[in-house]
Specification:
globular; four-stranded antiparallel sheet; 13 helices; 316 residues; alpha/beta
């Protein structure tokens, strides 16, 4: 469908049992996780379906778990509706890797090993308890950036531009706390600490990004069969080497989600379908552009609802 893009979520939407409500499609889900488990050397599906939550929430496990969830949803969509033929793909943070798998740029086994390595590098870059992230609600981007710039000690930066009035900051724990206070003084409605220990997409991840680059050097990357919009520049890459470079930069530079959605809209996209647990990206869509529609596919019921909504549109 020429006016539809499929998008994939990143970390934060995971939960124990998140892929167990697919009814007749359950074999596709479990087959996807089985392939990943073979590549990783442990039973990823057991952790996803049974927990414990503390294990699923470990970054190096969350990342392959969420990637597989998105790939499984994509595979189900391919078998169940015309929505499997989108004009573009994109993913938020980790979700960018999911998009590359679904676009046949990375194979699944390689991707789950790569994002596991990515998670390990991210966690080792900043000691547990020393990093933090927070969502700043109700403040313009420039004011969030200023709130961070006014912090005199430590690193804190605006890292996820998710929607107008919704920006995530990340850095050293104390610096993030000061920036939250600054944001409130500048008029933010809320400043909410996020339940993560890894300060993603800020300069504290630069060394991890360099190590990730070394891992990427050994990986075969094909040009995507469907255009993929990248987080770092909100554009489509022109070569496999550029994809490598964008994945490296993505780890320590901001996620430009607003610009990514705007790019897709400028290319004729008017509907985003989120594939994977939760519906965060679907919810952000109309906040970014009121003329666009957002749908979420995360279980059998939401799949049916999305298919029905498109059927209604096609018969109008």
């Amino acid at each position: 469908m020429t006016n539809v893009a499929i998008v994939f979520p990143g970390q934060g939407s995971q939960s124990v049992g998140m892929m167990t409500a697919w009814n007749e499609y359950q074999t596709i889900v479990e087959s996807t996780y089985s392939q990943a488990s073979e590549a990783l050397g442990y039973d990823l599906w057991k952790i996803v379906s049974e927990g414990p939550e503390s294990e699923l929430n470990q970054t190096h496990i969350t990342q392959p778990a969420m990637l597989c969830a998105g790939v499984a949803c994509w595979s189900i969509l391919q078998q169940s509706s015309d929505l499997a033929k989108p004009a573009m793909l994109a993913g938020h943070s980790l979700g960018e890797y999911t998009a590359l798998v679904c676009a046949e740029s990375l194979d699944l086994a390689t991707a789950v090993q790569l994002v596991t390595k990515r998670g390990e590098l991210m966690q080792s870059a900043v000691a547990v308890g020393e990093g933090s992230m927070a969502a700043i609600i109700g403040l313009d981007d420039k004011d969030v950036i200023q709130a961070c710039a006014n912090v005199s000690e430590g690193v804190v930066q605006a890292v996820n531009f998710n929607a107008p009035g919704q920006v995530v900051i990340a850095g050293n724990k104390h610096a993030v706390e000061v920036a939250m206070s600054n944001a409130k003084e500048l008029g933010a409605k809320r400043a909410l600490p996020l339940p993560v220990s890894v300060p993603s997409h800020c300069s504290l991840m630069r060394e991890a990004a360099e190590a990730l680059g070394e891992a990427l050097d050994d990986i075969n990357i094909a040009m995507p069969q469907i255009p993929v919009i990248h987080n770092q520049n909100a554009a489509v890459a022109n070569s496999a080497d550029e994809i490598r470079d964008l994945l490296i930069k993505q780890l320590y530079q901001p996620v430009k989600w607003v610009e990514s959605v705007q790019t897709m809209h400028s290319k004729g996209i008017d509907t985003l379908v989120e594939c994977g647990p939760g519906k965060v990206l679907a919810g952000l869509t109309r906040r970014i552009d009121k003329s666009m529609q957002g749908h979420a596919v995360f279980d059998a019921a939401s799949l049916q609802k999305t298919i029905e909504s498109f059927s209604e549109i096609s018969t109008c």
